[in-house]
Q: What sequence folds into this?
């Protein structure tokens, strides 16, 4: 079943018999489960394939070997885009993915990965765990036949790579800027000329003079793919992806068939991996950023306030339009996200933001 047919058939549900068809009866009879998990990221991508393997080891250890998971690279079974179909149909039991991979089902799928100028990764965890966001996520995925769990982060991104520092809004007018998703619309309204192309095509496009600037992820990933070789100025902060939450999706019939103890094992292991992977990503980015500056001669810049303000205004307008176009159930998810964002921001704006600013003041520390 292809992803489009899967989305069209959402709501039909799944059966445990279909989901478990590929599992050996003797193993199930002994209470042993052998599952497979698809990783969205290959081994060459920093921090993520190893996170999937660590999650599998953690689940095996915590379950005393009752649940063992084999990790598969993204295209091991065919096109990664069909992974959701494979999980729903039971060809694989689970996948570590991004919810916006399934955005054909509607804009709310983006919300559980990122919202431009939305939340930090910690704030998103607060929304999901303490403000009722997880129940909305479960509801969104119920018709898809999967159970979602928060299970890591790709971290905050950079605004991107440029030939020269950005002095103001005029410098972005007509700029051919590689990006994807909702950022394409925002940058176009800002006056840039966004270009959508795969990450693997970025370097050649710069060399051919087809793009002037680009964004991909953050320091660790960008350096791993040698993107610093093409343009020298690295600009922050990202307005479009202030965090990138990673999900663990589990076939719902298989999830429901687990005894409560094993459900807790998977849920707690996913929560532990969220913390472990987020720490890994921040450490990798911090180290890579130092190397980019000290070894590779990269110039860092933060966006001027007038650019950030304009991006905020345009982002708000685009999000309002997107909200109006969403179906009522998905609009309700976004409204809930907005209400939680306001509440959480009131706290983090008094604590984390001033603290971060205070550390940049010119005083001697040690």
A:
């Amino acid at each position: 079943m292809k992803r489009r047919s899967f989305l069209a058939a959402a709501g039909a549900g799944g059966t445990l018999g279909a989901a478990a068809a590929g599992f050996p009866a003797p193993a199930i009879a002994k209470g042993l489960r052998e599952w497979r998990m698809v990783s969205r990221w290959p081994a060459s991508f920093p921090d993520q394939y190893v996170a999937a393997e660590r999650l599998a080891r953690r689940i095996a250890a915590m379950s005393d070997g009752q649940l063992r998971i084999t990790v598969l690279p993204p295209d091991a079974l065919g096109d990664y885009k069909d992974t959701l179909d494979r999980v729903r149909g039971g060809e694989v039991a689970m996948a570590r993915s991004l919810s916006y991979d399934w955005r054909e089902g509607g804009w709310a799928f983006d919300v559980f990965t990122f919202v431009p100028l939305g939340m930090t990764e910690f704030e998103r965890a607060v929304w999901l765990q303490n403000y009722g966001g997880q129940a909305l996520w479960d509801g969104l995925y119920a018709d898809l036949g999967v159970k979602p769990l928060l299970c890591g982060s790709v971290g905050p991104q950079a605004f991107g790579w440029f030939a020269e520092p950005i002095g103001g809004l005029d410098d972005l007018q007509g700029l051919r800027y590689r990006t994807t998703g909702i950022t394409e619309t925002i940058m176009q309204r800002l006056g840039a000329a966004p270009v959508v192309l795969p990450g693997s095509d970025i370097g050649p496009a710069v060399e051919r003079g087809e793009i002037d600037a680009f964004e991909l992820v953050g320091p660790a990933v960008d350096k791993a793919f040698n993107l610093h070789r093409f343009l020298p100025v690295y600009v922050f902060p990202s307005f479009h992806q202030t965090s990138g939450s990673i999900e663990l999706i589990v076939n719902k019939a298989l999830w429901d068939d687990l005894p409560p103890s094993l459900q807790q094992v998977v849920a707690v292991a996913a929560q532990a991996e969220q913390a472990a992977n987020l720490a890994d990503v921040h450490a990798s980015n911090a180290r890579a950023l130092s190397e980019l500056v000290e070894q590779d001669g990269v110039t860092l810049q933060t966006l001027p306030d007038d650019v950030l303000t304009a991006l905020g205004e345009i982002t708000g307008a685009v999000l309002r339009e997107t909200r109006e176009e969403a179906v009522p159930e998905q609009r309700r998810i976004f409204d809930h996200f907005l209400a939680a964002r306001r509440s959480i921001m009131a706290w983090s704006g008094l604590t984390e933001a001033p603290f971060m600013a205070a550390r940049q003041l010119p005083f001697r520390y040690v």
Summary: Residues 160 and 215 are 4 Å apart (CA to CA). Confidence is low (pLDDT under 50) at residues 1-26. The radius of gyration is 21 Å.
